[in-house]
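Continued from yesterday's entry.
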Amino acid sequence: MRDTQAMITGMAPVLDDILYHFCVANEALLPHALASFREDEGLSLILSDEAARVHGLSSDLPMRRITLTVHSALDGVGLTAAVATALAREGIACNMVAGYHHDHAFVPAEDAAKAMRILQDLAGEERA
């Protein structure tokens, strides 16, 4: 789907129960990662709280994942901006990760319930 309004109204956010951490680690932990990204400074991994703790990695900012269940096109325009802007207006940090089928917003765990309400409201506003 590429239409901005249709992506927003169809995003139907779902909150994951798992706590996650963004960590810098070596390739041996790749099998434990939900996602990875290679940067000049090192390998960034998104690990579950359990995996981060077992391997002694930083767990100072627990995050929750909100999956936007709409099938957004990789070249779709506006969904990420709408989500990040709505959360930013309420002072909620948001790290967006795009998969092939869905976009995922990682927010501080303490803000997850509020972020869900904001995104549900955003989808509802676009429907009206």
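--- second protein ---
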Amino acid sequence: MSKLFNFLEKEFSLVCAGEMIMRLSPLNNELLIQGNFLTKQMGGAEYNVASLVSLLGEKVTILTKLPNNTIGEFAHKSVIANKISDKYLIFDNSLEKRMAIYYYEYGASPRKPRVTYDRLNSSFQNLKLNEISEEIFSSTKIFHVSGITLGLSEKINKLTKEMIKRFKKNGAIISFDVNFRKNLWTEKEAEEKIKEILPDVDILFASEETFRKMFQQEGKIENIMKEFAKIYNLSLISSSRREVNSTTSHNFSSIIYEKKENKFYYEEAYKNIEVIDRIGSGDAYVAGILYGILQENNAEIALKYGNACAALKNTISGDTSCINLTMLKEIIDEHENGINSEMSR
């Protein structure tokens, strides 16, 4: 069984860079215009990925900038609670320091879940290259970032491109999740900026919908992925697919293409997932894939971890996934061999 990557020995398995964002949600499935109470928790695409890979057992750190106040302290505490190293956290002491925020209203069919953002000019969006320790660029096996970070601002876009080049130069495998958000930029803008970094990317995450809408690709998804890998010299492309039966019932599956072996990997979809909270399930999928690559260096096994992590996250409240390896392997075993009982005890 051939290895996907020849990893160098590094301090960290994974470095993620991105904005941490505080989520505020009304209680009891209320709308924002109703009650007066909100629950808080930390999230963010790259932070969500870092959390799960760390909880599954890999050594992970996050590169981000937090306001140096009590809200920043709450975020810092969340980082530590999820076993992520805080070695490269940067704290903002300026008068303009602030935490990015979003408000999440739970859905109930036929009403969809709703997100309202308040993230402009956050501390992370004012991050500068000279604030980042140079040693981080040679500290990791994999560097992961998402299209959300690229789309935050032109300044952060340029900074992210420079970080990718520096990590790449120092031997890191570059992982990128398109993760398009229409509130940040248009599909046309996203396509142009993302194509600029693709030549430096090794692992690409993009949904089938993204390939067809943003990248305007037609035909079988396998042909699209294979052509993308050829054009941009991508080692691995992972494409997920979510079928929404209702607000509270989804099916989830994915496909991986490995360029070196010229091979596709599939798995039977997780069907009728009982959705408690879908936020972060895409990040959980990415985390599962990256964990599988780091642990097994094998695309087929990584696919199983990714699909199971995504399915599990849909059943867990909050942005991050409090999944351990035992739980993950149980779900994979049940998916492949059938459910043995209705309760784990």
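Residues 154-169 form the longest helix (16 residues). Residues 144 and 175 are 5 Å apart (CA to CA). Will compare against the first tomorrow.
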